[in-house]
């Protein structure tokens, strides 16, 4: 970190010192991630790329990623679902926390991971300024059931990169769920970057 002191005259003609602190960038890929280059400590979120990854009505932005930026402990996404858009029924071996920024919808959660299949899910309404979490390996689905407006939320996951098991329905056996790894937003990084050792 570096501090810069710049002398400048004040409105009354007296000298004053303007101090600006310049923070270093975090090196992408330091920590085992696959990305390369530098990630600034402070970024303008409107300058971060978004993509639908072929899913109509989805906008996904990786704010802090394991594969993309080299983060080791958590990953943060900003997602927007148009009315009617939903995730597949899925589970993963990481904790997941959501913060709803705008809109409303429904969380479907089957906390029956000890059974052979997810079973009938519980329904939880989600809404602006609500937060919810999904326990490790619980099958779930987030759905924008509001026909009038987009659903937007921050997603924080532990233990990245995420390995997702996708179900065709709530009664599909756990052993038949299909592994999707790397997940859609990590695929390009794996295609273009060599795998690096954590050390």
From TrEMBL:
Its main location: endoplasmic reticulum. Zn(2+) binds at residues 90, 92, 96, 140. Residues 7-17 have a biased composition (Polar residues). Coiled coil: none annotated. Pfam families: Auxin_BP (PF02041). It comes from the Eukaryota. Residues 1-20 are annotated as: Disordered. Glycans are attached at residue 129. It is found in: Endoplasmic reticulum lumen. One of its GO terms (biological process) is cytokinesis by cell plate formation. One of its GO terms (molecular function) is auxin binding. PANTHER family: AUXIN-BINDING PROTEIN 1. This is probably a receptor for the plant hormone auxin. This is Auxin-binding protein T92.
């Amino acid at each position: 970190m570096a501090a810069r002191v710049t002398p400048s005259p004040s409105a009354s003609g007296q000298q004053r010192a303007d101090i600006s602190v310049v923070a270093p960038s975090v090196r992408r890929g330091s920590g085992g991630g696959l990305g390369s280059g530098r990630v600034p400590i402070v970024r303008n979120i409107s300058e971060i790329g978004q993509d639908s990854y072929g899913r109509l009505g989805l906008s996904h932005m990786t704010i802090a990623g394991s594969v993309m930026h080299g983060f080791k402990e958590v990953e943060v996404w900003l997602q927007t679902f148009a009315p009617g858009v939903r995730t597949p029924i899925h589970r993963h071996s990481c904790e997941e926390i959501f913060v709803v920024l705008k809109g409303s919808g429904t969380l479907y959660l089957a906390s029956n991971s000890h059974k052979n299949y997810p079973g009938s899910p519980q329904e939880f309404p989600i809404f602006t300024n609500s937060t919810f979490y999904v326990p490790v390996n619980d099958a779930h689905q987030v759905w924008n059931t509001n026909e009038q407006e987009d659903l937007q939320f921050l997603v924080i996951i532990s233990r990245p990169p995420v390995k997702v098991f996708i179900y065709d329905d709530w009664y599909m056996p756990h052993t038949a769920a299909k592994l999707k790894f790397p997940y859609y937003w990590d695929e390009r990084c794996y295609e273009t970057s060599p795998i690096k050792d954590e050390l």
